[in-house]
Each structure stands twice: as structure tokens, then as C-alpha cells.
């Protein structure tokens, strides 16, 4: 097997190729904006060039005069529908065309609709706004910010976790640090642009749009348009990169739906990459203060993590990663606090491991500093602080294989060869540095429904309204059905990405594999029960063998004793052409409302730190080698090794691919990525891939992913921990640690750039 | 994107005639109604963004003169046809051997796809990537004369520290041009006022009070060839490009260096600097410092100091002075140590 398809170890599934791989590489996978629709009209957005103020006048004459222009949707045209409601399904509470107030740079001011894309774009560019402009507030330190405590103010953030008496413990600690860290603004920039295609069939609205939450959007869009959700359908069969950006619906969707209604024609609007910076969500900049106190033996007695996050004026979006950092190690005492800093910016949103990426970066950079202060090997320092129970609620971990991850990654990386002296390792003109950090991600699971049908011909059809955002969930769901029903994967068709399918939760929080597989498992088990009952019933092919254990394999029911019967014959005996089961999975601890909320598009999440019995996390350890030129100080990462343990691995190929992508992104977060905000105007400056840098192939050399076997039955019936977001947690701290090792310079503000190493 | 007329003239004189028909004498090539297009990797991008707004595109790719597509390396030097693609020139065996600085400057630019599309003339004429220039809602003296310069007190990390003015500090981002200016290249043009030979160092204009005037060319003037005079010691030359990532990024600082050495003593040095200046930048002061000196850390450092003596930093680009100096020192020492 090659590196892309690691040989499965214990509790790990086969590296089956993705079921849709061929469709994707041959261009036959149709993404939402590929939908061919007769008589389609094209929409283009016009957006504001100020961040705060009021639109006093819109001049539309030039735009209307462009040949082929059909309509311009703007102020007044949305009055009869409701504004978005900020929450899980809506990115913002701003109804940009409901109100002439400008809350942020790049806010939608109109949608031009025309016969061609080119005409729509030209018209949109010709729409001229006059503003009454107020001085905007850009970010931290700008005059005019408003700072509020997250806890109590936002339903997204319950509490500032704490334990013991931090102040006393910190005061008494023999070795301590008190440092500040920061992470920049980041935009997802998926290669597939954001788009909405809407058309009406009578009272029915159909929207094709890349979405990580078709059920939630259906309900929210129906609410905005004052419709019965049964009349709204969201279709999103393939998604070309999402990373959270396609989780919440933006105001554009309803605007395009209204345009299609006015025109009586399908309307498609693809936003430009530049416009996406203001019309979609993003990861806001964060700041951190961390204090750690320890005894000379390296045991941490005091840990405090304070975080500040930028959000918009209207919406209190929170990431609040202290819940994870406060439970990471066996601290003696914990103090945390999260503050939100409101500025004239668009509302931030989920971006791959939203809380953990910035918060764990700060924690792990601080851990490395602490190891240096203690004169201790950073791996050893973590080993010493490995807890039995988490420090906040004193609950056990459902499973925790962090040390196994460190050991296996360290071995593969060759950590033993590291000379701990700063700047001691060199290769000619290049300084070499080695560093490491911990990755953590909470294991959550949500209710989910699925329909599975097994036909007499041995075909399986699996339907679930989850989303193929590139993770391979279609493949692993099919694999689960394949295993449980004893049917080869090529006999299984998997349908996803449509709100008319059985509802699944938002594809976020790394819950999809666990939730979807648990529902598929339940549906398949119901089919098995029916089959086994029919087979063993009187007159059935396995009559009389009631107390036996059965399994399904190769289209047969196989008894432990060795007796077997063809599934086909059992179905024939039942006189049915197919067995179809609709299963609703609700996790342990679900409230009585849980399934109702699933259909309402507001699913409950369980697991993580919320359960009574234990806290549930996946862990990993990442090791990085950097090379820095002695003169010019450019930083390269020739080598990175990550070892991760995440319960049952459904498919080692797709799991590795997720983790690899995460680690590459982590390198990008360490060295490249940042959206620059012009402080004078609160506007984004580098709004394209020319200036918003991400790693290219040449930046990624030797990358190794190790899947550490782990068994955890407590997390969910499938035994799966999500790993989609685990890979890019900690990476940036590992890079910072390696940069310090090479140069003696501790960089606390991301991204780490050449200019920070020149001084 | 605005509609435009697209024409495909079939020879140089037809292209010149079309251009002079649809432009007037004082038009800047980048602001004229009719503009030439070669690979389109720069111009088409700016048309989509509404930064360039020609009504008429004159596509040069159908011009029948074969010399436009040829590279000739002789004892007199190199002659590059204007339509030669960057990739072809970067891979040219003799150029790689005899003038590595040229081949490397091309090879380290853009991406394989762009190098296969982009022409050499288009490359030297590429316009700045200043973020505030690229997006039409910002004030920009280059794009809209007199509107101001949003970059001056804005996010100017990539901007120039050499050759700027109070009107504009946009960097000239091309790499190839640094090799050309270091090697005293000459640009051959044809236009309605006849053929010209322009020293490469005179092709681009510093912004001064008129940042919208970018080159010495008239709107109906076509670059037909670029000539590089022979440099017998050109084998000892290199292009060093420092950037945020390993590939597919513009230079934060770069240096084109060629050295004629007598043992360790410099007989003659050719030095140009990229990523730090508003135009292709010949560092003559640095060359003079080195002449007749032993090339070591100290003299390389003195040359770098001379190269940046006049540098003017802004808020976010001050590091380019230190980085530019170190880039030059490293390039000089690496060139000295080349085995030729
Ligand atoms: C993502 C990206 C990364 C890049 N990275 C780099 C890099 O690292 N280094 C680098 O040096 N460059 C880089 N480039 C720039 C690239 O090299 C230029 O876009 C390209 O060389 C332009 O050549 P072209 O033939 O496509 O020009 P066009 O876009 O066709 O034309 C550019 C300009 O030249 C004029 N013109 C073209 N030919 C003639 C002629 N014969 N006579 C008169 N006028 C003419 C046009 O009117 C136009 O104004 C990058 C570009 C992109 C898009
Ligand atoms: S630096 Fe030059 S190109 Fe950039 S905004 Fe200022 S005037 Fe325009």
C-alpha cells in the first residue's frame, strides 16, 4: 500500500478509494454553480466601499443602461420578507437590503441581474453609492471598540471555566511565565467560489448552493421568505471546499431567491473572490494572555488563559477555546476569561477548528516557553503534566492517547537526534530548528437520520442529508453500510446534500462521520434484525437456529455454526423486493426534543465536555522541522510528522487525507495566512489569492501522518471521533517552537514572517 | 468587465497602424483606448478587475514575423523575440549555461502555467500588484491621477523603499527585468514614428508626480525584441529571490548579480535589485564600491549599504531595507563562490 492508503491497524477501516473520486477527477461531479438551467439569468453583487455609515443615494441609471440588464434588487425590495436571524443557520443578523445602514466593508448594496454574467458584472460595477460616512473602528486598539464578556452575553458561550485558586498557586509557583500571543484575521478562501442558484416551481423554491447545512438553511430561508419549509429545497451535492465557510447561510441566498421570483426565471449569482471577504464569514483576529506557574519538577500548579476576539457590532460571535485549553493538561488550578471586542466588521464565523486553532496555538506556544524556562524537554514536560482526570469537572477522559501520539510521532520524526541547544543544528547556511505541539479537538455527535434500502438484487441505496465537503463522508457512510450488510461498496449508492433527504446535522464540529455512521449503523441493524428474523422464522432457510449469532457477508446470512442462506432467498421468502429502514439516531443524553430539533435544523450537539460520565476529545502530537537561512531568514518547513488517535478510523485513506490537509493548513497559518485590515478604513486589503498566501506544493515536502489505534465505545455507537478539524490544531505552535529552537527568537504573533526574524 | 473589440492583426505594421488609428499621440499605453495583448496574464486580470479599460484589444499572437518568437544566442549576445514565452527562455540551454542570471530570473517567476502563457515583452511591461491599485474603490494616483495614494499610510508591506515619490510607492514586481537592466539590455520597438532602440534602463519611469506614466513607450509602439549584449563572464551570475513561500510569489527582495573576478578581486560587478524599488533597479553605487576590491563579507556589506543609502521606508516595509541588504550580500557571496 502506498502512503496515501495506509495499511489499517487495529480498529481501522480499509482505505477504500472515494466513491466519487472518478466523478471528481473527470469533471462529472456537478457542483451547485454547474447546474444547467434553461433561461438562466445572472446576478452580480454590488458592495459597499465603506465600513460604517449610511447609503444616502444609489445611482442606478448607468447600470440599468447596460444592454441585457433585467433587474436590480436593492433597498425596499426585501421589505416584505424577514431579516436573517444570527445563529447556527444564518451568518449574521444584518439584512443588508433591509436597512441603509452600513455595518462593515463590502456589505451588499444591490444585486444586478442580466442576461449574461458579463453584463451583470458590468452593471454591478456601475452602481454608484453615495454615503454619509462615519469613522469606522477596525480592530483591537482602534478607537471606538466595545468590549464585553462572552459568558452570559452570548448563548454560544456558557462559562469561563475555572478550578482551584489560581492567584495563590501562581504567586507561589517556583517557575512562571506571563505572555501575550495573537492570531490574525483569516479567510477560508475555498477554491470553489460562493454561489446561489435559485428557481421557483410555482410555490416551491429550489436553491442550489454549496452548503454544509441543507436542513438548517431550508428552515431559515423559509422563515425569512415567510414560507412553509416543506416548499423550500436546498441542493448541494458536491462542495469544492468549505472549512466552515459554507456552514452558515449569508443574506445573499434570500436576495437571489427574491430576484428569481421577481423575474420568473432561474437566477445564479457567483460572488467574486474579492467580494467573498466581506459577504462571507471569516476567522477574526484573537489575542491571548497566558500565565503558567509550575514547580521545579515541572508540574503545572497554575494556568490562566484570557482571550479577546473581534466580532461585529450586531452579532456576538464567540469561539472561546478556553473550554479545551483549560482541560488540556493536569493543571493544579485554572482561571479563564473570554472577551468579545466589537468593531465595524462583518460577523465572523466558523473556520476549521474555530476555538482550538487560535487558543491552542497560544497555549502550546506558552507550553514551549515554559519547558524552556524549566530547562526541560518539551515532550517530557507534557508527559509530566498528563492528567488522570480533567481539571475542571474532574471527569475522566473517555479515552486519551496523547502520550502514545507523542511517542510514535517522536520516534518517526527522530526527536532523539535533536540537540536542545538554541541554534546548535545547522546545515551549511541553514539553521535547523525542531519543535512540537499538542493537537486536541472535542469529540461531539449530533442526532441524524438516514434511510437505507437493500434490494433483492443486492443493491443498497443510502440516503442522508449530510454534506460531502471533501472529507469523504459519502465513502465512509457507504463503507459502514457495506460492512453491516455484507454488500460490496460498488453495489452501494450514497445520496447526500439535499434537504429533501433524511435530515443530518450541520457538517461542522467534526461530527459528521460519527453522527452519519451512527444513523446508518442503526438503519442497517434494523435491516439485519428483519432479515435474521425472517431467515429463522418457520419455513425460513435457517429455521430453528434461533439462539445463534448471525452476520452478513457476501450477500449471505452466515451463522456462527457455519450454516448460511442467501439474502436474496430470504427476501424472496418474505415476498418483498426490498427492505427499507428509516433510522433516527439520537446520542446518549439527548433531550426529548432532540429529534424535533434535528428536523428544525437546530440539532443538539453532545459529547465534548458536556457529558456527565466523561469528557471526550481526540488528540494528536505534531513535530516540525524548520530551516531558516542564516542571512535572509526565509523560513521553510521541510519535514512534519503528526500522530493522531481518534477512536475508530472508518477509512485510513480519507482520514489521512483530512489530517494531512489540516497539517498543511497549519503550516500556512504559521507562516503565510493573514487578511490585512486597513486600520484607517476598517477595510480588507489583500482580498485575493495573490496577496492572501497559502502554502503551495513546493512548500510541503516530507509530511507523515500516523494513525494511532484507539478504541472508544463511549463516544457514540460507531466508536468514531471526528478528525476533520484535528490536524491544523497545534501546528502553528509546533512551527513557532521550531523557529525558537533554530534562532532563539520567540515569535508570539502569527503569522511568523521574515521581518520578525531580521531584527 | 466592459465589452471590447478584439482584433488580430497579422503583421507588425498592421498592428502599429491599428494602434495609431485608435489612440492619440499623448495617450499612455496603459490608458489608451486600444491596447496590445500578448499572453494576457497581466492585462486580462486587470480588465476583469476594472483597472484597465481598453475598448479595443490588439492581439499580438497572430503577428506573422517569426523573429518575434525566436531566441538567438550569438557571440554578440542574445536576441529575444518579444513574443517568446517566459518558459521557453527559462529552459533555453545556452542561456542557462552562459547567462544563468537570466534563466533563473525567469524560472523563479510566477508558475509553470503562467510562464507557458506569458510573453517576454508582456513580462517586462507587467504593471504593479499594489493592492490598492488592483481594487478600484481605493484612492490611487497611478490608476486615477490626483485621487491620492491609499498605500502611503496604509498596508504597505510589499511596497518600494527605493525610487518612490510622495505620489506613489508601488513596487515593480518583475524578476526578468532585473537581469536585463544588470546586463545593459536594449529594447527594440516599432511604432508610427519609426523604429527605436531604448536602453532598458530608460524603459521604465519612476513615479515622480506622474505615477500613471509608467514607461517611455507611446501607445502605438510595439516591443519587437530585447537584446542583451554579450557578457563573456556572464557564467558567473545568479538571481536570488527571497519570498514568503517557496514558489509562486513575488519577491520581497531579490538581487541579480554578475561578477567578473580576478581571483577574489572584483574587476567589474553588475547588480540589480528587485522587490524593493518602483522600477527595475540598477544598483550602480554598489557596483562602484566593489570595483577593484576583494569580495568578502565586509565589502559585500559596504556595497549593500551603498545600494540602500537612499532608501525611504514606510510603516510596514521598513524590513525591506535590511532584507534587501542581506539578499545582496548573500547573492554576492554565492556568486563569488560559483564554480564556473
Ligand atoms: C499569479 C501570478 C504570479 C506572478 N508571479 C510573477 C513573478 O513571481 N515574477 C514575475 O516577474 N512576474 C510574475 N507574474 C507576472 C507575469 O510574469 C506577467 O503577468 C506576464 O509576464 C505578462 O506577460 P503577458 O504576455 O501575459 O502580458 P500581457 O498581460 O499580455 O500584457 C502586459 C502588458 O504589456 C503590454 N504588452 C504586451 N506585449 C507587448 C508588446 N510586444 N509591445 C508593447 N506592449 C506589450 C500589454 O499591452 C500590457 O499592458 C505573475 C503573474 C501572476 C498572474
Ligand atoms: S502606491 Fe502607487 S499604485 Fe499603490 S495606491 Fe499608491 S499610487 Fe496607487
What's the helix count of chain B?
A: 13
Low-confidence stretches of chain B: none
Number of strands of chain A: 32
Main sheet record of chain A: 7 strands, mixed
Q: Output the structural class of chain B.
A: alpha+beta
What does the model show?
The complex is a heterodimer of chains A (759) and B (340). Chain A has 759 residues and is of the alpha+beta class. Among the domains of chain A are: 1-30 and 395-443 and 608-759, Aldehyde oxidase/xanthine dehydrogenase, molybdopterin binding domain (Aldehyde Oxidoreductase, domain 4, 2-Layer Sandwich); 446-605, Aldehyde Oxidoreductase, domain 4. Chain A has a seven-stranded mixed β-sheet with strand order 3-5-1-13-10-11-12, sandwiched between helices. In chain A, a hairpin with a 2-residue loop joins strand 23 (550-553) and strand 24. The longest helix of chain A is centred in the last third of the chain and has 25 residues, at 512-536. Chain A starts with 20 loop residues before the first helix and ends with a helix. In chain A, 59% of the residues are buried. Chain B is an alpha+beta fold. Chain B has three domains: 5-59, Uridine Diphospho-n-acetylenolpyruvylglucosamine Reductase, domain 2 (2-Layer Sandwich), CATH 3.30.43.10; 66-124 and 172-229, Uridine Diphospho-n-acetylenolpyruvylglucosamine Reductase, domain 3, CATH 3.30.465; 238-336, 2-Layer Sandwich (Enolase-like, domain 1), CATH 3.30.390.50. Chain B has helices at residues 12-22, 43-48, 86-90, 93-98, 100-107, 112-117, 120-124, 131-134, 176-182, 200-203, 284-290, 297-307, 319-336, and strands spanning 5-7, 34-37, 56-59, 71-74, 77-81, 186-191, 194-199, 222-229, 237-242, 253-262, 265-274, 281-282. Chain B has a five-stranded antiparallel β-sheet with strand order 4-5-8-6-7. In chain B, helix 5 (100-107) runs antiparallel to helix 9, helix 11 packs antiparallel against helix 12 and helix 12 (297-307) packs across helix 13. Chain B is globular and about 60 Å long. Chain B starts with a strand and ends with a helix. The mean pLDDT of chain B is 97. The chains are: A alpha+beta (759), B alpha+beta (340). The structure holds flavin-adenine dinucleotide and iron/sulfur cluster. Flavin-adenine dinucleotide (FAD) binds at residues 30, 35-43, 45, 60, 82, 86, 109-110, 114, 117-119, 121-123, 125-126, 173-176, 222-223, 250 of chain B.
Amino acid at each position: 500500500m502506498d502512503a496515501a492508503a495506509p495499511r489499517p491497524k487495529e480498529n481501522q477501516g480499509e482505505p477504500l478509494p472515494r466513491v466519487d473520486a472518478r466523478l471528481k477527477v473527470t469533471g462529472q461531479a456537478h457542483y451547485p454553480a454547474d447546474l444547467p438551467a434553461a433561461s438562466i439569468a445572472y446576478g452580480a453583487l454590488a458592495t459597499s466601499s465603506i465600513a460604517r455609515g449610511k447609503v444616502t443615494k444609489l445611482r442606478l441609471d448607468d447600470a440599468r443602461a447596460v444592454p441585457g440588464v433585467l433587474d436590480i434588487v436593492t433597498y425596499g425590495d426585501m421589505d416584505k420578507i424577514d431579516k436573517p436571524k444570527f445563529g447556527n443557520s444564518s451568518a449574521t443578523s444584518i439584512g443588508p437590503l433591509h436597512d441603509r445602514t452600513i455595518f462593515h466593508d463590502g456589505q451588499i448594496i444591490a444585486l444586478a441581474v442580466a442576461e449574461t454574467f458579463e453584463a451583470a458584472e458590468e452593471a454591478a460595477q456601475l452602481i454608484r453609492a453615495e454615503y454619509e460616512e462615519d469613522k469606522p473602528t477596525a480592530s483591537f486598539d482602534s478607537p471606538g471598540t466595545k468590549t464585553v464578556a462572552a459568558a452570559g452575553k452570548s448563548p454560544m458561550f456558557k462559562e469561563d471555566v475555572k478550578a482551584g485558586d489560581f492567584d495563590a498557586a501562581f504567586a507561589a509557583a517556583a517557575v512562571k511565565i506571563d505572555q501575550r500571543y495573537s492570531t490574525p484575521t483569516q479567510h477560508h478562501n475555498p477554491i470553489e467560489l460562493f454561489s446561489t442558484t435559485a428557481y421557483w416551481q410555482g410555490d416551491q423554491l429550489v436553491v442550489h448552493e454549496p452548503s454544509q447545512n441543507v436542513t438548517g438553511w431550508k428552515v431559515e430561508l423559509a422563515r425569512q421568505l415567510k414560507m412553509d419549509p416543506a416548499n423550500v429545497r436546498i441542493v448541494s451535492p458536491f462542495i469544492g471546499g468549505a472549512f466552515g465557510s459554507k456552514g452558515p447561510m449569508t443574506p445573499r441566498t434570500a436576495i437571489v431567491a427574491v430576484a428569481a421570483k421577481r423575474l420568473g426565471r432561474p437566477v445564479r449569482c457567483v460572488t467574486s473572490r474579492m467580494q467573498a471577504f466581506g459577504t462571507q464569514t471569516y476567522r477574526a483576529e484573537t489575542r491571548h494572555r497566558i500565565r503558567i506557574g509550575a514547580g521545579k519538577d515541572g508540574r503545572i500548579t497554575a494556568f490562566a488563559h484570557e482571550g479577546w476576539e473581534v466580532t461585529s457590532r450586531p452579532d456576538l460571535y464567540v469561539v472561546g477555546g478556553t473550554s479545551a485549553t483549560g482541560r488540556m493538561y493536569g493543571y493544579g488550578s485554572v482561571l479563564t476569561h473570554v472577551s468579545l471586542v466589537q468593531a465595524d466588521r462583518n460577523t465572523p464565523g466558523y473556520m476549521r477548528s474555530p476555538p482550538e486553532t487560535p487558543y491552542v496555538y497560544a497555549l502550546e506556544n506558552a507550553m514551549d516557553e515554559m519547558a524552556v524556562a524549566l530547562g526541560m524537554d518539551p515532550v517530557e514536560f507534557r508527559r509530566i503534566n498528563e492528567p488522570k482526570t480533567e481539571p475542571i469537572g474532574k471527569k475522566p477522559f473517555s479515552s486519551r492517547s496523547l502520550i502514545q501520539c507523542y511517542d510514535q510521532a517522536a520516534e518517526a520524526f527522530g526527536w532523539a537526534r535533536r540537540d536542545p541547544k538554541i541554534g546548535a543544528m545547522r546545515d551549511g547556511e541553514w539553521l535547523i530548528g525542531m519543535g512540537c505541539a499538542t493537537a486536541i479537538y472535542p469529540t461531539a455527535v449530533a442526532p441524524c437520520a438516514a434511510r437505507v434500502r437493500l434490494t433483492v438484487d443486492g443493491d443498497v441505496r443510502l440516503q442522508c442529508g449530510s454534506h460531502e465537503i471533501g472529507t469523504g463522508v459519502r465513502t465512509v457512510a457507504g463503507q459502514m453500510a457495506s460492512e453491516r450488510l455484507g454488500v460490496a461498496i460498488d453495489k452501494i449508492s450514497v445520496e447526500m446534500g439535499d434537504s429533501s433527504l433524511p435530515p443530518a446535522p450541520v457538517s461542522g464540529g467534526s461530527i459528521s462521520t460519527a453522527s452519519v455512521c451512527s444513523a446508518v449503523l442503526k438503519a442497517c441493524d434494523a435491516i439485519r434484525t428483519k432479515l435474521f428474523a425472517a431467515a429463522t422464522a418457520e419455513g425460513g432457510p435457517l429455521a430453528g437456529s434461533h439462539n445463534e449469532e448471525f452476520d452478513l457477508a457476501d450477500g449471505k446470512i452466515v451463522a456462527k455454526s457455519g450454516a448460511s442462506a442467501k439474502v436474496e432467498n430470504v427476501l424472496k421468502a418474505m415476498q418483498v423486493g426490498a427492505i427499507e429502514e428509516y433510522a433516527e439516531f439520537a446520542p446518549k443524553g439527548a433531550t426529548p426534543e432532540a429529534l424535533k430539533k434535528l428536523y428544525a435544523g437546530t440539532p443538539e450537539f453532545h459529547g465534548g465536555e458536556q457529558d456527565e460520565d466523561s469528557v471526550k476529545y481526540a488528540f494528536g502530537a505534531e513535530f516540525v522541522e524548520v530551516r531558516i537561512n542564516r542571512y535572509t531568514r526565509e523560513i521553510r518547513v521541510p519535514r512534519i510528522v503528526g500522530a493522531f488517535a481518534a477512536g475508530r478510523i472508518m477509512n485510513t485513506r480519507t482520514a489521512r487525507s483530512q489530517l494531512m490537509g489540516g497539517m498543511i493548513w497549519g503550516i500556512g497559518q504559521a507562516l503565510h495566512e493573514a487578511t490585512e485590515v486597513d486600520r484607517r478604513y476598517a477595510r480588507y486589503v489583500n482580498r485575493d489569492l495573490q496577496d492572501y498566501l497559502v502554502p503551495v506544493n513546493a512548500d510541503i515536502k516530507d509530511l507523515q501522518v500516523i494513525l494511532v489505534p484507539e478504541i472508544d465505545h463511549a463516544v457514540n455507537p460507531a466508536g468514531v471521533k471526528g478528525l476533520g478539524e484535528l490536524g491544523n490544531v497545534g501546528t502553528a505552535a509546533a512551527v513557532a517552537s521550531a523557529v525558537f529552537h533554530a534562532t532563539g527568537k520567540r515569535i508570539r504573533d502569527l503569522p511568523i514572517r521574515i521581518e520578525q526574524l531580521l531584527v | 468587465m466592459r465589452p471590447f473589440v478584439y482584433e488580430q492583426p497579422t503583421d507588425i505594421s498592421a498592428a502599429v497602424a491599428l494602434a495609431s488609428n485608435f489612440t492619440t499621440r499623448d495617450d499612455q499605453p496603459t490608458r489608451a483606448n486600444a491596447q496590445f495583448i500578448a499572453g494576457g496574464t497581466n492585462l486580462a486580470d486587470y480588465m476583469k478587475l476594472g483597472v484597465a479599460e481598453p475598448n479595443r484589444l490588439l492581439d499580438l499572437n497572430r503577428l506573422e514575423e517569426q523573429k518575434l518568437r525566436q531566441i538567438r544566442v550569438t557571440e554578440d549576445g542574445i536576441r529575444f523575440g518579444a513574443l517568446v514565452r517566459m518558459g521557453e527562455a527559462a529552459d533555453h540551454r545556452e542561456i542557462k549555461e552562459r547567462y544563468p542570471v537570466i534563466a533563473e530570473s525567469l524560472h523563479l517567476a510566477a508558475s509553470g502555467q503562467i510562464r507557458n502563457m506569458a510573453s517576454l515583452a508582456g513580462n517586462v511591461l507587467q504593471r504593479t500588484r499594489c493592492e490598492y491599485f488592483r481594487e478600484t474603490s481605493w484612492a490611487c494616483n497611478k490608476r486615477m491621477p490626483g485621487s491620492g495614494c491609499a498605500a502611503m499610510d496604509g498596508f504597505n508591506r510589499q511596497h518600494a523603499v527605493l525610487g518612490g515619490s510622495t505620489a506613489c510607492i508601488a513596487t515593480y514586481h518583475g524578476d526578468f527585468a532585473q537581469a536585463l537592466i544588470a546586463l545593459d539590455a536594449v529594447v527594440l520597438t516599432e511604432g508610427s514614428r519609426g523604429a527605436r532602440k531604448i536602453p532598458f534602463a530608460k524603459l521604465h519611469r519612476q513615479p515622480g508626480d506622474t505615477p500613471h506614466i509608467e514607461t517611455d513607450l507611446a501607445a502605438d509602439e510595439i516591443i519587437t525584441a530585447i537584446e542583451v549584449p554579450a557578457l563573456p563572464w556572464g557564467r558567473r551570475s545568479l538571481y536570488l529571490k527571497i519570498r514568503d513561500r517557496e514558489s509562486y510569489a513575488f519577491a520581497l527582495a531579490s538581487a541579480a548579480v554578475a561578477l567578473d573576478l580576478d581571483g577574489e578581486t572584483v574587476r567589474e560587478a553588475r547588480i540589480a535589485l528587485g522587490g524593493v524599488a518602483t522600477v527595475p533597479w540598477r544598483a550602480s553605487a554598489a557596483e562602484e564600491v566593489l570595483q577593484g576590491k576583494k569580495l568578502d563579507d565586509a565589502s559585500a556589506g559596504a556595497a549593500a549599504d551603498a545600494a540602500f543609502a537612499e532608501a525611504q521606508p514606510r510603516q510596514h516595509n521598513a524590513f525591506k531595507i535590511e532584507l534587501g541588504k542581506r539578499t545582496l550580500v548573500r547573492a554576492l557571496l554565492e556568486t563569488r563562490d560559483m564554480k564556473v
